Amino acid sequence: MILIGTRDARDTATFAQASSGATPAHGGLFTPRDWKRWNDIDDLLKLPWALRCAVILERLIGDEFERAVIDEIVREAFDFEAPLVRLADGSLVLELFHGPTLAFKDFGARFLAAVLTRIPSRGPRMILTATSGDTGAAVAHAFWRKIGVRVVVLYPRGRVSPLQERQIAALGENVSTFAVDGSFDDCQALVKTCFADRTLSADLGLTSANSINIARLLAQLLYYFEGAASARKSGVAGRLVVSVPSGNFGNLCAGLMAWKAGLPVHAFCAATNANDTVPRFLDGGAYEPRTSIATISNAMDVGAPSNWERIAGLFGHDLTAMRAQLRSEAVDDAATAAEIKRLNSIGYTACPHTAVASRVLRTQLAAGETGMFLATAHPAKFMEVLQPILGRTVEIPERLASMAQRPVLSESIDTNAAAFVTRLRALV
Ligand SMILES: *Cc1c(COP(=O)(O)O)cnc(C)c1O
Predict the structure, then answer these.
(1) I want to staple 139 with a disulfide (CB 3.0 to 4.6 A). Which of 20, 209, 310, 340 is the partner?
(2) CB of 299 within 8 A of CB of 133?
């Protein structure tokens, strides 16, 4: 796979280079140069999950990895399901939270870990990532005890749930965690400062595990095909509209890449919480990133979504083309809570992020269309939010409950970049 920089097409990289930390010299992100439209989608959708994943990945990165290696990666990374559930009101939910840390971030993090262990590295390798909750947990678990890799996770202190914090910060060993006195955007800014320092990046072998890493997006593209395949299998024939709860917009970007390759989806909904940079833009405003606002769907508290420039690039920066494919809406906390209650009343417990996607889908769906929303995390991860809304507890899966007793091993830091760089160098 050949990738080019979003800001200057003269910046190029292979998939192996981009996924192991190369960034474009002229700024921006690496993004695939070409999207071929596959003309055998009907056949692809008939394949079983693991085989379909391998076939798709071979088309994308088969020039860099042998098929046998891709098969191994798929077996290692995607050893859990993405079931499609039909609710009493007829809507479809693609549940992406059946991996080890109970959020869809497991797909990207486990794929990245499987890929990186198969790319030789000349020096040290450090995975540096900012998280609003779920990425840090998935990355820490995916790379825990992997030889020759140090993982560093930054998260906003007090803005992740207690269980999330334990998932991120209770592993230790090769996983170092920092609780930052600031927002997710502050964490991301610190990480960006480190990546912009080319000497530091080279010395430490810095690699991002955020959705700026293309490997994460390629992994996520796979479950969109699974969703379409399952919908077809269950007899859905109408136009499919997929609602994606969005923060940093990696998930939606992956869906749009799948669509470019031929995924049979009629339109997508970009569903956000009060952090509405993208809906404001698509409604005809200017593209104005803002400081993030804290909400009850905290994994989507992103005011300056990194992946938007990839998405804009997929549409050739053509606003009309974007609007033809993308519906968008922002949902506030009150409406999110009301939607959690409504879903509960029809027998479905949704996490706050999933509820945002469901709410947006209901207003954006036209007659004759079938709606599917993505469930991005297990509701038990957000017990503190759900319990007061539902007036009951949510059963905590054993995987999560086992973390609750473990101590948090984080170091607290402020947003001073120079001090953080010094701390980072001391870790190797
Ligand atoms: C990360 C996350 C999102 C947002 O995904 P993006 O790819 O950043 O848009 C939504 N829901 C949950 C539960 C998440 O962890």
Answers:
(1) 209
(2) yes
Give percent of the chain with pLDDT exceeding 70. Answer: 100
Mutate to test the pocket of ligand 1, among 248, 256, 307, 340 (most ligand atoms within 8 A of CB): 248
pLDDT tens string 50-93: 999 999 999 999 999 999 999 999 999 999 999 999 999 999 99
Distance 244 CA to ligand 1 centre (A): 9
The mean per-residue pLDDT over the stretch 248-271 comes to 97
279 and 330 in contact (C-beta within 8 Å)?
yes
If DSSP codes are grouped into helix, strand and coil, which group holds residue 313? helix
The residue type of 132 is: S
DSSP 3-state of 22: coil
- For ligand 1, the distance from its centroid to the CA atom of residue 282, given in whole angstroms, is 20
Pairing of strands 30-32, 92-95: unpaired
pLDDT 10s digits, 286-315? 899 998 898 999 889 999 899 999 999 999
Mutational pocket test of ligand 1: of 188, 273, 376, the residue with most ligand atoms within 8 Å of the beta carbon = 376
**pLDDT given at position 403:** 84
C-alpha 138 – ligand 1 centre gap (Å)? 12
Q: Which residues pair with 243 in a beta bridge?
A: 269, 373
Q: Give the predicted TM-score (pTM) of the model.
A: 0.95
Atom 1, ligand 1: residue with shortest CA distance = 299
In terms of Cα–Cα distance, which of 70, 141, 53 is closest to 103? 141
Q: Which atom of ligand 1 is nearest to the CA of 353?
A: 11
Two tokens, residue 29: 């992100």
State how far the Cα of 130 lies from the Cα of 230, in Å rounded to an integer. 33
The atom of ligand 1 lying closest to the CA of 249 is 9
- How many Å lie between the centroid of ligand 1 and the Cα of residue 387? 21
What is the set of domains in the chain, with CATH numbers? 81-103+215-395 (3.40.50.1100)
